[in-house]
Amino acid sequence: MVRIRRFEERCVELYSATRIRGFVHLYIGEEAVAVGVNEALTPEDAVVATYREHGHALARGIPSEAVMAEMYGRTTGCSGGRGGSMHLFDAGRRFYGGNAIVAGGLPLAAGLALADRMRADSRVTCCFFGDGAFAEGEFHETANLAALWRLPLLLVCENNLYAMGTALDRHEAQTDLAMRAASYGMVAWAVDGMDVEAVEQAARRAAEAVRAGAGPHFLELRTYRFRAHSMYDPDRYRGKAEVERWKERDPINRLLDRMREDGEPVDETLAGIEHRVAAEVDHAVEAAEQAPEEPVEHLLHHVTSAATESS
């Protein structure tokens, strides 16, 4: 969680200094979701994420250097510099995006899960999406087919209460998203998304059930983003007092407080983590600054398939 937080805080500085450009959606405040869920998955499982996916990618194990280089648009980035902030990708780690379209990853996740089921592979496909995706047809189509075909799919809704700048209760008549998901005939429940241990326990229980053939499961992780929707967003749709109330539930501080209650040497441990993460992020930025940009003559690479000769 500290790695994600410090990485993104550096991204804010770099964006303000115009070192990285384009759209940037920060995950600060939601770290417990990515970390807790990924802790419950195996390397053989697949992950499909949203455009707010820096945390998912880092928690999945994509190196900070590869993510930062992608933010810079450099060839050493995890997507070769062509994806940027919203399209992080690493097939080797079975991390299939990064998707800029709201709810766009859901049908892709269903396809991955269907392929695993047809091959009889004991794997889980985990799909992250926001509460705003609930208003999209892709969610309902995916949920229906996943339940109908009993796909090995773990649907993780990161309910941060806002679809861009629209509050949940202004776009959904029924705001209990877990209850609505259950109407499709899948197991669903809500979890405190600001508690990393609660997230990990719920995700592990769900992933084990999915892996055992119990069909799709749905987790509504109730969380909150401390920053605006994107770096372009003036954040005028919610009050500062609301943000400060949620910051009192900061997932990093909550875990530290619990560790202190258990008598663990928190301050010493945290100091070591902060030191390692600072060095890691510094190195990632330095490497990205020195990495090459893609040559202009490569502009049409990966756009169309190679021509084939007809016999």
Describe the structure.
With 311 residues, the chain is an alpha/beta fold. Helix content is 44%, strand content 10%. It has twelve helices and seven strands. The chain has helices spanning 2-16, 31-39, 54-60, 64-72, 105-119, 137-149, 168-171, 177-182, 196-211, 240-247, 251-261, 266-290; strands spanning 46-48, 125-130, 153-159, 162-163, 166-167, 187-192, 217-222. The strands form two sheets. A five-stranded parallel β-sheet has the order 1-2-3-7-6, sandwiched between helices. Strands 4-5 form a two-stranded antiparallel ribbon. Strand 6, helix 9 (196-211) and strand 7 form a beta-alpha-beta unit. The mean pLDDT is 95.
Number of strands: 7
Strand content: 5-15%
Largest sheet: 5 strands, parallel
Give the distance, in angstroms, between the N- and C-terminal Cα atoms: 56 Å
Which stretches are low in confidence, meaning pLDDT under 50 for 5 or more residues running? Answer: none
By DSSP (H or I, 4+ residues per run), the number of helices equals: 12
Mean of pLDDT: 95
Order of helices and strands: HHEHHHEHEEEHHEHEHHH
Give the overall shape: globular
Global Rg: 20 Å
Structural class determined from secondary elements: alpha/beta
